[in-house]
Amino acid sequence: MEQSAAVMWTCLLGATFALAASLTSSNTDPRPPRLIDCVFMNRANVTCRWEPGDPPATRYTLQVQRIPGIRRLNISSKLPLTTFSCTTSGSSCTAALSGSSVSFTFCVSVTAHSASQSEHATSERRCQSGRLEVELPAVALSAVKQVKGHPRCLNVTWSGGLVDFPVSLPEIRAGNLTSQIQFTEGGQFDVQVRDVAVRDRSFLVCVFRPDTSYSVRLRHRFMGATSPWSQWSNEVWGGTAEDAPSAAPAFWREVKHADESGWRPSSLLWQPLRRSVANGRVLFYNVTCETSSSHALRDHGSCTDLDHSVTSCSLLLPAGRCSCSLTASTSGGASPEAHVWLLGASEAEPPSPSLLSVTPLDDSRLDVRWAAPAGWSPGGYVVEWRSVTEKNSNVLRWRRLNSSCTTVVISEGVRPLERFAVSVRALYGEKGAGQNRTVYVYTRQGAPSAGPSVEVKQISGSTVKLTWTPVPVELLHGFIRNYTLHFTSETQPARSVCVPAHTLSYSLKNLSPGVYDIFMQANTEAGAGAAGPVTNVHIGSADLSVVVWVVLPLILASLGLVMVACLAQTKMVKEKLFQDVPDPSLSSLAHWTPKPALEGSAWPAAAGKLELRYSEVVLLGESELLDSDLSYQSVRHLHTFSLNRYAQLPASANQTPQSSTESEKLTESLTKARSSSDAAVYSDVLLSPTLQSQQEPPPPPPLPLSVSVDGVEPQLEGDRALNVSPHSESPLSQSSDSSSVSICSVSPPRQASFESVYNPAPSLQPRPDHLCGTMLLLPFPRPVFVDMTYCAAGYDPYVSPAV
Which residue of 40, 377, 508, 583 could cross-link 102, Cys pair, CB 3.0 to 4.6 Å? Predict the structure, then answer.
């Protein structure tokens, strides 16, 4: 026990002395600094870093000795060495190499100096080639070009820069360089760095996307990881070549109902490819459609020659099942095909998605969510939305999604105060698209900008039935919650009625008599909208209604009778003023034959029992003709008859001379007579009283008389005055039955002309042996016949009168 205790105490004492010795030695021998690394710049300088020793020194001295090439293998040679040094108080220092190349071997050490100036410690000396820790100078990029046939590659060309590059071309080809490129896509800010293998002054880098421009930089380092990276080169831009699109365009369709011939008007829709998959500029699209039996359709409608700006086309598709495909082409080739399948017009569509909800996020965004149909596994979905208008002519917007997506936020074309129809369809591959499920929504509602137009459908007593047309959806700006019907009159206060939104008619009952102004307002959750047009309605009393229904038919009947009477009066007036010429054959003179006037009679004695008192010519105007029994109607030319030769009557002692006054009176009456289209002329020859009182006058000597009848045209002078100059010696006509004789015209040897209005006399057949003259018939519709049977003078047209 004692021995063991002694051994233990001996060990403890030994350990204590050893610890004390170590502590004493540490305090007396400081720990030298340790080199971390050095960076050599070719023909420039060298920078080294170290860890401080223990205790910390007040200053450090860096010594870099260049070993000549002939002594690389024998460092202990006594030849002089070139030393480069620098002093610092920090943990790094840079010593100039004075133009020395880094191809030499350099020995580096660091000495720490304490404050006592007598104590110093030197780090372990390290000798190696300067290229092992050389920082290569930044290279210069000269070009970055696309590579034909390689749309994802760029050809980068570089040079060694302005200073000597310490790595030779054979060393580069041997793979003694480690290189990196830094590139940024045009329009982007993300910087990417990739390792590249550089074996020459020009090399390919195939880490890019087709048809994309990039800015490129390059840097190198010598050998392994002990050499630092050089600075980045200058920036050079370059772009890759185009390639065929890497994905098919999003493809959809809009099909309408079949027409009479069974063809379905259809629109094919697609969306431009994203730049990330287009791989170039799309030059054109190609659409092909075929039936289920793989027969291509010949009629492509507008789906031909589709350039890059077109995103839809129209054509007629058959009623049966068919499909259409679409490709987009660039200079690098065509994209994969996109397909849509259409079921036959009589086929049932697969089910629609369930649990569809549309929630406004703000004024321009809608959150759409749905769930897959139960028991079905759709291959994708199509979300459709469009602004709802009266004619539904707005552009259909849509988005095609994969099967894992059941929610989407839509914002394209979404605006506040507009109603949108949002629907979702499920896609079932070649089975076509399923039924759509639709929700109508507003991002934000407002008050309607117009009100309904009210019309009166029926008025029955004090009840008015009203109808109205809905406000166009473009003017609603929200969902209609109800209508407010306002009505007021002069005698009643303004009142209103709330009408449900789904009704389009309403009846106002028990209205008091008066005139009412009626209008409506549409109400949304944002409030009441603008008032609609005002309609006026008149409500009368019950007694007034009875009076109207009773009196109105009487008034109408009276008006009818008045019109009938006016029409009858018009007919009567026409008969009075424009009556037809009476038929002479129905008169009492139709069968009367007068006696010969001069048969067996003789002229009066030479004493002269016959006396011509005067010849009277009377002109009748239009008014007088209407009142006379002759009833003149038409305007015709009346012929004149001239007695060119006549017998001289023997003078009589008992004959009373004719006064000049009567002759002047006749002349004056003829001169003042108006010659117009409304006048008729006739003359009366009156016998003297002595001739009238004579019972049986002695027969006169034979008196041959030649009579000629000449028709002359009217001559108008001044105010259509008729000038007739009667001759003092007028031919006489005598009748045994009457003392006055009517003749057609009295004219002197000179012809007289005038115009007359007359009513043709009854057509009597003249006796040729009793005519006073010859009648010239003119081509009138109703010819004039003049009866000259009352001329009392006998004559022989071929015998001259006795002297």
Answer: 40
d(CA 263, CA 282): 32
The type of residue at 434 is G
Q: Which two tokens stand for residue 241?
A: 């070549």
pLDDT at 20: 52
Residue found by looking up tokens 């004090």 in the block = 462
Residues in a beta bridge with 338: 326
Taken as a whole, the chain contains a residue count of 803
Name the stretches of the chain with pLDDT < 70: 1-30, 69-79, 117-118, 161-163, 541-549, 571-583, 587, 589-803
pLDDT, position 297 = 86
pTM for the structure as a whole: 0.56
**What pLDDT was estimated at residue 166?**
87
In this structure, what token pair is assigned to residue 555?
């008034």
Query: Is residue 310 helix, strand or coil?
Result: coil
pLDDT of 466: 93
* pLDDT, tens only, 617-674: 444 444 344 344 443 333 334 443 333 433 343 443 334 444 444 445 444 444 444 4
CA dihedral 412, 417, 419, 424 (to 10 degrees): 40
Residue corresponding to tokens 């030769």: 645
Give the DSSP H or E segment for 399.
strand 397-402
CB 715 within 8 A of CB 753: yes
Residue 757 token pair: 């209005």
Name the DSSP letter for residue 626: H
How distant, in Å, are the alpha carbons of 231, 445, 511, 538, 552 from that of 459?
Answer: 97, 37, 11, 9, 18
Looking at residue 163, its pLDDT comes to 59
Q: What does the block give as tokens for 332?
A: 């690098």
Contact assessment for residue 300 and residue 315, using Cβ atoms and an 8 Å cutoff: yes
Cα separation values, 369 from 381, 401, 421, 423, 650, Å: 12, 12, 14, 11, 143
Element (H, E) at 86: strand 82-88
430 — phi, psi (to 5°)?
A: -70, -10
Query: Dihedral sign, CA of 233, 235, 239, 245?
Result: positive
205 class by beta-carbon count within 10 Å (0-12 exposed, 13-18 middle, 19+ buried): buried
Encode 349-376: b = buried (16+ Cβ within 10 Å), e = exposed.
Answer: ebbbbeebebebeeeeebebebebbeee
Nearest to 736 by CA among 606, 595, 591, 612: 595
Supply the Cα-derived Rg of the chain in whole angstroms: 70
Q: Where are the alpha helices (DSSP H) in 168-319?
A: 169-173, 275-278
Secondary structure (3-state) at 336: coil
Residues 6+ apart with CB under 8 A from 546: none
- Mean residue pLDDT of the chain comes to 75
Name the token pair of 686.
């009156």
Rounded-to-integer distance, Cα 159 and Cα 44, Å: 20
Q: Please give the pLDDT value at position 575.
A: 64
What distance in Å separates the CA atoms of residue 685 and residue 698, rounded to the nearest whole number? 21
What is the structure's pLDDT at 563?
Answer: 85
Peptide bond into 55 cis (omega under 30): yes
Contact 705, 646 (CB under 8 A): yes
The predicted pLDDT at position 519 comes to 94
d(CA 325, CA 680): 104
Neighbours of 6 (CB within 10 A): 10
- Rounded to 10 degrees, the C-alpha dihedral 595/597/601/604 comes to 150
Contacts of 490 (CB under 8 A, 6+ apart): 514, 515
**Gap between the Cα atoms of 665 and 717, Å rounded:** 21
**Residues facing 223 on adjacent strands:** none
Residues 6 or more apart in contact with residue 18 via CB below 8 angstroms: none
C-alpha span between 294 and 316 (Å, rounded): 17
C-alpha span between 615 and 686 (Å, rounded): 7
